[in-house]
Every structure is written in structure tokens, then in C-alpha cells.
Amino acid sequence: MDDRYVRWLSGLGAGDVALVGGKNASLGEMIRRLSGAGVRVPGGFATTVHSYWRLLDVDGLRERIAEQIDRLHGGGQLAEVGGTIRQSILDATLPPEITGSVVDAYRELAVSLGRSDPDVAVRSSATAEDRPEASFAGQQETFLHITGEQALLDACRRCYASLFTDRAISYREQHGFDHRRVALSVGVQPMVRSDLAGAGVVFSIDTETGFPHNVVIDASWGLGEAVVGGRVDPDEYVVFKPLLGRTDLTPIIAKKRGEKRIKVVYGTGGGSRTVDTDDAERSSYVLDDRETLTLARWAAAIEAHYGTPMDIEWAKDGATGELFIVQARPETVQARRTSSQLHSYRITGKGTTLASGQAIGDAIAAGEVCNLASAADIARFRDGSVLVTRVTDPDWEPIMKRAAAVVTDRGGRTSHAAIVSRELGVPAVVGAGNATSVLASGREVTVSCAEGDEGRIYDGILAYEQRDVDLGAVPKTRTQVMVNVANPAAALRWWRLPADGIGLVRIEFAVTNQVKVHPMALVHFDRLADTDAKQRIGELTRGYQDRTEYFVERLAHAVAQIAAPRFPDPVIVRLSDFKTNEYAQLVGGRQFEPEEENPMIGWRGASRYYSDGYREGFLLECRAMRRVRDEIGLTNVVLMVPFCRTLEEADRVLDAMGQADLVRGRNGLEVYVMAEVPSNILLAEEFADRFDGFSIGSNDLTQLTLGVDRDSAALAHLFDERNQAVTTSVEQLIKAAHAKGAKVGLCGQRPSDDPDYARLLVRAGIDSISVAPDTFLRVKDHVTAAERSEGR
Prior knowledge:
By secondary structure, the protein is α/β, with parallel strands linked by helices. Helices cover about 35% and strands about 20% of the residues.
């Protein structure tokens, strides 16, 4: 083996990009520098750029390539130029010094593996790729399941030709790279038998919001090309990086089981083929918790080593059970964004939702639909249209950059469509399912990725607004200004907001949207009389041996996703406060809920937690909250009891929580109570003996103090949070609570609309005010002005 033409990966490092390209240099760097951290990377070898330049000396190949590039710049057709160059390379004869070195290395690899003609992966590695400003992801080809010397040499030749795919030429043109100066190295590694297990992608940063403390893992059965190509809806796992060093914790804050309807496996006679997954594969996760944490720790180690967020491919060998990293490159989108700027989009018009899927980015765009079945139809695309197709691959990139937005039927947020749309700054909705069926070419639509993790395609051109905020100019205040958040996606979307924590998390949103099932219907599933509800619960809890674990896991992950972006600042989670008519709407709920004349002052809040009709359901809530704090490790979660009418009720609730190992003070647990019933004000000191703080629910407090139905249009003129009876109650509560060392906050929108109300709260000495995220900056200004007027 001549090391001018071939090098072992173990002898390469980050400084060898010019010699073996970005991909192979990165693999060598990880083998040399990160093995000590436990990161496993398959060994192997790489051809050097000298091999590529030597090939170009054959039969005047260099001159013919230059001639075609000049032709392109003179107005020649991309497809014709690329095809001519590729065919010229495929027809060329590999020089004997290159074939000899490759064959020698392959034979040495076979000896080290203890088997003849081992299966190998043959990957392209260009000298211009894997840079922070341009990743070149997917521009060149990879060939898997290559067996034998001749097949390997053929694959090498095809790799060299792939330097001039249409998409690669277009990408280099777009980023200003000189085609004549870019060389290609071929990397050869033993195949990881992920066809017998699974594979996927890891990002060491949240790719949608830029939140730097999450690791996002996608996984599917079989070879990784199905995930990377966006052909499958994968499992998704989210891990909170700051707690990965704690071996006593399991900081997985989200798990979503994908449909995984297909997988890619080895084909007969080499190559690969796509097959359907079976029911067991679709209903189970690809990774267990141990494997998830291993990949997350590796991602964190790789990111720390390179000093930048990383885009990583992994594979699991089904024969040995081992995990491997098979590729790592810098993440190229969020890493370039500044954390001092917040771009906020909001739909202001109304329209019918035509389709929905996973939102990529946080922007909004509108235009006419261009529904294309194949990249061969590129000529039909009009600039500024909304591209709608089943799935994209690198061949689509020349038109994706001309699109106002992209919509695909298939794919997750690490699919090709998601990655490229992110890099281009184009909003996209992936995994929309039926978009190609319902969105006809020529139809005007608005694509919104600004409403959380669900992206929506609306009928018509809707009005929307964009706001850019300099977060560095937000003033500091002594009074804490917090935000109210219920949706996990919103918590991530607003992570850059300099709030002092989250003052109210209503878990009803998570129960309604993530869980969907009444907890008592899970506890007493066998007693459930509603056959339709029973069937629906069976579908939702598929894969769970214990149906109550479905409730606990889903609720715990929803709360954890909200708490993580604010860690270690406080996140106040209000335990369930559904009214009976609302609980009855959950799947299986009607059997467990009475009909009440006035649910607003009926069986709600604290009164449910210790009652025979709901105690078992409350214990599921407690199990979920204990998991968030004690197992995941998010001890910034503060629990809050709503609608607690009496001191005796407070004692019974705290006792019920204690039976679920949620003991006030243990592991730093603080427990608050909502101040929304006049008895909370009149007995404030006694309540303060039992709780660490109060959160004023101004709507209910006003309603119950004035005896006014807040939903009555006839009495709307009497419903006023600034009524002296209400403001006096607030002032009395703050004074009494502070005398006992308890904190007081208010969660409501009045301070955002009324500067005088904010001034009243500041003058009374309130500790915190919590409002909707989109009004946070306005309230900050109101509080700043109030503190200045009070001389604080």
C-alpha cells in the first residue's frame, strides 16, 4: 500500500481535510481523539486527494472537465454538463498505483477483521465539505454493502464521478467554490450491520430553535439512508445535555414513536432494497434508554471536541449490539444565528387548515402551490411558489432555494427536506401525509411554522406579521417577569427570551394534546363501558404493557420539555384544574365525571386530589411530576395546587402528594397554592404555613370576590380586576405572605394591557408577574417604569 494514495483513518486528524476531505478527516479525528471518551467509530482507510488528481491525469480527463465547466458558465445546461463529466470519469481507467493501494488496504482490513472479502461502506469525502458555512451534506454518493475487490474499485470510481452530480455542481456554484480546485477522497469502512437493527441521525443542538442544551436523535429500523433521505417517519428522542454527567439520572425529556412503515435492508447480490416493517417494529422504539443516553453523551463529547454544534450519523450493529458513529459534520444553520436576536412571526388572518405536519423553522410564507411528483419536473417550477412533493432528495435542491416554502408528505426533522430548508432559511412542513393529494398546483396557500411544533398549510394568502427584537436591550427589573407556557414547542421557541422563569404551566394542555385519555380510564380500563373509547385507548397505548405508564411518561415528557429550556430558573407547574365538563371530553372520561350545574365552582382542583373518584388519577399526575424532578433531574419544577378552598383541604392534598413521594422540602421541592378563592386571602398566614408561595389567579379571584360570572356578557361591565375589593385582597395577601416568608406572584394578562395595574402590583411589593410570551417585552417596559416611579 502506497501511503501517497491511501491512508488508514486511525492516522488522520482534523488537520487533514486538504488530504482526505472533511468527512474522512473527521472520522480519523474521532478515532484518534474521542476513543478515550467511549465514542466508537468503525476503522478503515481513505484514498488521498493525490489519487483523485492522479486519476484526472488519465486520458486528458482534467482538460475535459475544465471544458465542460467553461461550457456551463457559458450557458450550457447543468444536466448535460454534469452527465458528460460523470460519464467521462466512469469510463476512465483507474491508474495501477491507485488500484494496487486500494486492494492492498482492503486485504489488510480483511485480515484485521478475520474474514475474507468483508462488506464495506464506501463514502465520498470532498475537500470543500463539512464547513460551518456550507455542509455539502448529501452532495456526493455513498455506497453500502460493497463486497469484493472489483466491486470496491467500481464503487471508488462511482464516488469520484459523484463529485459532479447535478446537485453537487449546483451547490458549489451557489457557495462560490471553484470546481477545478475541489478534490475527492474515498473512505472505506467495515459495514455496520444496521440492516439487522437500526440507524439514524443525532444533532447536538435543537435544529428548529437553536436551543443549545438539547440533543435530538432520530432513529428507524434498517440502514440509515431511509432517515437521512426522509423516506420514513422516525422515532425521535430529546435529551437534556446539562444533566448527562449525572449517572443517577435519565435526562430524556421527550420520546416520540414514529410510524417507521418501511426499512432499508441488504438486497440480494449487493445493493439495498426497501421492505415494509412489521407490526412489532412499528409499535416499538428502536433505541432503549441506555442506548439513547449513550448516543447523547457521544454527541456532547463530539460537540465539545470540535467546539461547535454537530450533525452526526449513527448506526447499530444488529449482529453485535454495538453502537457506532459513522459520520460527523458541523451543524450549519443554528450555529450561525445570534442569540441576541429574536425573530417572531404571527398569523393575523384566518383561514381553513388544508394540511399539517412537523414545522421546520419558525417563519411564515405564502404563494401558489407547485405540486411536483419528480425532480425531473423541475422546469415546471416557478420562483416563489410553494413546493409540494412526496419526499425530497439532493436532486431537488436547485428548486428548493427558489421556493417560498416546502411541503412534503413524508419525513421527520432530520430528513433531507428539513435539513436543506433550514439551511436555506425556507419554512417547511414535513410529514404532512396527504399534502400532495389536497394541495393542487395553482392554489394560493399560506404556510405557517410559527405556531409551535405543528406546521399548518392554510387556504389562501393570509395576513401575518414579523417582529425582530434586540434582546440585549431588554432592561433588568427587581420584580421578576416570567412567562406562561403550556405548549412544549412554545417553550423552546421562546428560550432566548430573558424571562426569570415560567410562572404558570397549565398541565391541562399536555393532558388534552399529549395524553388525550382520562387518567381514570387508564387505571380502570377493564371497567370501561364505552367500546369506542376502549378501542381508541388501545391504539394510543400500543406498546405499553402498563397503560398507566402511558399517562405518566407522556405527561412527564411534556412538562420536562417546558422546564428544560429554563433550567435552573423556576418553572411553576399547576396540577390539573379541569372542570368536570372538560374532563368528560377526554377519551373515556364521561364514565368518571358527574354532570354539574356550575362546574366553575364544582368538583375541580384540590377537591379532586384526595377524593375516591379521582385519587388514583391524581397519583398518576404525582408519579409524572416525581419523574420530572427525581429521575430526569429537573429540580427547578415547582408544583402548585389550584382551587384549594380550605386549610383542611390543603392538608389532605399535601398528604396525598406525600404518599406519592412528593414531599415538600425533599430534594428542594417547593409547593405553591393558587390564590383565587377569598378564603386564600382571609387565611393567608395559615396557608403560608403550608405552602412556599402563592400565585394569584386574578380572573377567578375577581369572579369570586365580586360574585360575577366572568363569562357573562350581561355582567361584563362589573368584572374588573382593579375593583378596590380585589386590589385590597391582593395587597393584603402580599403583606401576609411576606410576613411568613412566602413568595407571591400573579399570572394573568392585565399587566400587559394596563400599565397602571402593573404599577399597582409593583407598589404592593409583588415578587413576580407572569404573562404570555408575546407580551413579555411590553410588561418588562411597564414594570421598569413602575419601579422607577417607586424609586426602586
